[in-house]
Amino acid sequence: MSDNPFQILDDQPSPPQLGEEIGETQGSDLQKKIQSLTNCADIVLFMKGNPQSPQCGFSANAVGILNQMGKPFKTFDILSDIDVRQGLKEYSNWPTYPQLYVKGELVGGNDILMEMHREGNLQKLFDTL
Questions:
Q1: How many domains does the chain have?
Q2: Is 17 domain-assigned?
Q3: Higher pLDDT residue, 95 or 15?
Q4: Across-strand partners of 101?
Q5: Beta strand 43-47 with 74-77: parallel, antiparallel or unpaired?
Q6: Residues 78-94: pLDDT tens digits?
Q7: Residue 46 falls inside a structural domain
Q8: Mean pLDDT, to the nearest integer, of 62-85?
Q9: Alpha carbon of 44 to those of 19, 37, 74: distances in Å?
Q10: Prediction pTM value
Q11: Distances (CA, A) of 116 to 41, 47, 96, 108, 112
């Protein structure tokens, strides 16, 4: 054991303490986090804000459509995590938000969601869940 209480010169880093930030999520860790988020429920909406307080009209519209569908869904506020916000764009190859995932697969953004809802295809998709 070192006499150095701050472990500045120790070869072994000290383990993170409760509540201590351990750095940004990068690379494969970010990909794993995004994959986990997209699969955390049958229906996941990545949006700006939350269902009670959407931070853009497109997100508000997407939440409204999903509420009409009557199926439970989860949301993720992409404004709360810059790494996920940027990483999801690359993961999905979709540049805008909101993004809707069903069973871990990208369905699309607001325009596609509106079109699918209007044509009845969103209901058909949700009926398979």
A1: 1
A2: no
A3: 95
A4: 44, 106
A5: parallel
A6: 999 999 999 999 999 99
A7: yes
A8: 95
A9: 27, 8, 5
A10: 0.79
A11: 20, 18, 18, 10, 6
**What whole-number distance in Å separates Cα of residue 107 and Cα of residue 121?**
11
Q: Residue 102, class by beta-carbon neighbours within 10 Å (0-12 exposed, 13-18 middle, 19+ buried)?
A: buried
Length of the chain: 129
pLDDT confidence of residue 28: 82
Would the pLDDT of 13 be above 80? Answer: no
Asked if the structure places residue 96 within a domain, the reply is: yes
Neighbours of 64 (CB within 10 A): 13
Would you say residue 1 lies in a domain? no
CATH code: domain of residue 62: 3.40.30.10
Residue 119 CA: distances (Å) to CA of 29, 39, 42, 66, 99: 38, 26, 21, 15, 19
